[in-house]
Amino acid sequence: MAVARKKPAPAAAEPGAEPESKAPILDLGKESEIKAYREMLLIRRFEEKAGQMYGMGLIGGFCHLYIGQEAVVVGMQMTIKDGDQVITGYRDHGHMLACGMDPKGVMAELTGRRGGYSKGKGGSMHMFSVAKGFYGGHGIVGAQVPIGTGLAFANRYRKNDNVSLTYFGDGAANQGQVYESFNMAELWKLPVVYIIENNRYAMGTSVTRASAQTDFSKRGASFSIPGEQVDGMDVRAVKAAGDKAVKWCREGNGPFILEMQTYRYRGHSMSDPAKYRTREEVDKVRHDSDPIEQVRNRLLADGMSEQELKELDAEVREIVNNAADFAQHDPEPDPSELYTDVYR
Ligand SMILES: Cc1ncc(C[n+]2csc(CCOP(=O)(O)OP(=O)(O)O)c2C)c(N)n1
Ligand SMILES: [Mg+2]
Fold this sequence. Notes:
Layout: H1 2-6, H2 30-55, H3 70-77, E1 85-87, H4 93-98, H5 103-110, H6 144-157, E2 164-169, H7 176-187, E3 192-198, E4 201-202, E5 205-206, H8 207-210, E6 227-231, H9 235-250, E7 256-261, H10 279-289, H11 291-301, H12 306-329
Parallel strand pairs: 1-2, 2-3, 3-7, 6-7
Antiparallel strand pairs: 4-5
Helix pairs in contact: 2-3, 2-11, 2-12, 3-9, 5-12, 6-7
């Protein structure tokens, strides 16, 4: 490909070079722990509220909640800088909030109101904010992988040092377009971190039933893309692995794969009764490795008081309540909007 030949990767590692061994888990420090706690809590409370509003009939259409997976997106967001890009599938509210998008605009999109990020015409799976580096929001499983690879291509082409964080699920990881993207990304040394959120299920199908290779960090092996398995329930582990992967990409070494081992507590979408797994299985993960509880316990051990944590919780609840209020009172789009933003 002409462009790639004209613009060889800057400061690329020697062919066959390997990144150092698995990223060690480091303490984040109190300030970052509080930040991570607050952001994960915002996602959790936002999603709980969205679930309630869906149950009340205030939100229609598809709605896939991210509850349980919060440490992945919050930890990764702590590794990137302005100008980097984030793209994901339909389980996307957490990614938007982590990117700094306004909870009011996200919630109002869920209720189909004018002040929503897509003017109330896109819904849960179709929101974007170039200003915040968020490129969707994609309902077609795996579709974001070539697009995220294209974002990385644009970074190379423009000779900036930005990185694309391209998220997808364990189910999406079995799609052909993912491997076409891997090939191009490694061939052209594109700065893309492929983040496979292995939440153990693709709709009602468990990873072991659907995947021949369940170690997703190895999925780039035939393209020589390095990968790492990460405890996606521990925000510190996510941050440590993310720092390493982002640095690898930013320095021109090509793509990196992170398999985030995580879990979704809710059904695939709001309409899924989740009969393919037991309540005990969900309760065990919640009890043993909830990402928010882990940070909460460390903060308490570090001397933060219950009262301080309660205040933080109240602050987050207020943000979410305001968003829910806005999303119920903002007007619906004007009928004249029916024919705008559509391709004919
Ligand atoms: C091309 C395509 N095939 C099938 C579907 C239906 N579908 C929606 S989500 C999903 C499962 C994807 O699971 P995974 O990638 O593990 O993501 P998760 O939902 O667990 O976050 C399927 C098959 C779709 N939206 N697009
Ligand atoms: Mg999955």
